[in-house]
Amino acid sequence: MTQSTSRGDDADWWRESVVYQIYVPSFADADGDGMGDLKGVTDRLGHVAELGADAVWLTPFYRSPWADGGYDVSDYRDVDPRHGTLDDFRELLERAHALGLKVIVDIVPNHCSSEHPWFAEALASPPGSPARDRFVFMDGRGPDGGEPPSDWQSKFGGGVWTRVPDGQWYMHIFAAEQPDLNWENPEVVAEFESILRFWLDLGVDGFRIDVAHGMRKDLTPPLRDTNGSDSAPLNAPPEGHDHPFWDRDEVHDIHRAWRRILDEYAPPRIAVAEAGVSQARLPLYTRPDELHQAFNFPYLRCPWDAGAYREVIDSSLEGARSVGSLPTWVLSNHDVVRHLSRHALPAGTDTTAWLMSDGREPAADEEAGRRRARAAALLTLALPGTTYLYQGEELGLPEVADLPREALRDPMWERTGNARKGRDGCRVPLPWERSGPSCGFGPGGSWLPQPEGWGEYSVEAQTGRPDSFLELYRTALKTRRSFTGDESFTWLPSRDGELAFRKGALECRVNLSGVPLPLPPSAAEPLLASGACDWRTLPPDTAVWLDAQPR
């Protein structure tokens, strides 16, 4: 398969960029309270620039009671005091732009916090009032309305309906502290367009849209039961298409309106969708009049198998090209077990059960995980499109699977009756230095405990070590820049268990077979290997880059 498009001017910077995800609470803490903040981000942006990224994506830093790590927003136009001030954000933006980094911020439009002024007004207002119409309030089933309006299930465990004292029920796809907004209400539409303009006028370069596939619902009475089809893991596509609140066709009207706003700015700003939908439906979110990108969760979930990767890469490229876009490629984020640990486990491992065993059952092959994570980095960075890196993957951080139960902060833990530990293991604050009270994260401790030996993963410990994860990423991102601008992609002849392709003049080969494979004779110039390689044989779990047109 050969595919090709041409890249335009700076307005198209996003097409082949590297975006570094910063989970603000866990990146860097400047004031010593154990919680990451915007000043801490500003102080450490040099690391991201030196790594070679083009942009940063900041997770929510808005005012929030923190029922779900900041994804429950009580004021969309201000910074939560635990993360700093609006002036701190302005300084961060100025520093990032001075370093040549774009800044993408999270927007959370499906729901707000139960402490948002709108929701307080709704609770104080009667059924049928304009204040309640901003949310999804409904009467219950049964003679006294005592049963929920439907059997719909929350992503965080339990039902999506919570009853209020006057007898009505409100909807929340996630935690009860995150009431869903009613996107059929013109006030909601106008409010979020105003919120977008607020941050765009401050100078942000784009948005990551949380739950971009869940904002519209089919609320036609009587509500359709789903028999549990809505309770799949986070970022997993719902079963089928005609679901009452996932991936409704009507959601695209919202994204088209937002695209018109983004295009008003010069250069145009961008948006990326968090859309946990099927591979066939994903391109709908990136049509020319909608969003620029959508996260590629099928690639993130891909097992360590050459056939599975080839299938996902083909379908990703085909779908994105069909609408004039390019795919995104992501290995980890703040919602999933870190990929180094996933690739260290036997195929098919239930990671929820693995976390509940504190990472003991089954035992992880940590060395295999490291090899595969390094090879996956080169595979991912060689593909045409945008790579999203999650903070710490450049350090080779594993999942912290054995966090003490009493330290868990993810609402999944309580809402599932202590049956799912949740996402805290991938959110442990970063190590910057070998020692200190929080390995350089800040002058105090850290809001989630860092495990023993965490400092050996630190930036300080890895800088200058040629065999380290950090130096592999730095070299790979620097080398990658030489090959941007040519978006062509061609599969090359390969053996069982091997991936081989060219993206422009960059040739990438990955051995997923479990046995050494001879490298074919080639005039290409060796550039980079993910592990020890003599350039005659490709060891298992290893990737190499070659320059097919030595310059």
Automatic annotation (TrEMBL):
Glycosyl hydrolase family 13 catalytic domain segment(s): 21-427
InterPro entries: GH, GH13_cat_dom, O16G_dom_2
GO molecular function list: alpha-amylase activity
Record-linked SMART domains: Aamy
GO biological process, one term: oligosaccharide catabolic process
Annotated region (Disordered), positions in chain: 218-243
Family: Belongs to the glycosyl hydrolase 13 family.
Name of this chain's protein: Alpha-glucosidase
Organism encoding this protein: Streptomyces radiopugnans
